[in-house]
Structure formats: C-alpha cells, structure tokens
Amino acid sequence: MPKKGKEKNTANKAKHSRLMEQKINKVKEKKQLHKARLKAIIKKANQEKKEN
Length: 52
Hints:
mainly alpha, rod-shaped
C-alpha cells in the first residue's frame, strides 16, 4: 500500500541530483581543459622539433 501524506525526500533528492550534476560537469570541464593544454604543449614541442 502506498504511504499517506506528503512524499518524503523529493526536495532533497532534486537538490542532491542537481548538486551532483554540477560536480560531475565541473570534473568533465577540468579534464577537457587539461587535455587541451596538453595538446597545445605537444603541438608546440613538435613544431620546435621540426624547425631544429
């Protein structure tokens, strides 16, 4: 039988989901920036190798 009265934890679940989504997106963004920086460094190093 379903419970009577107001639903439990719906506000907290929504808030938690939103916060976890923000955290995950922040980590993804950091990883992408890190990869981009590494690519730029590697590209620069390869150019310098070709010039010398």
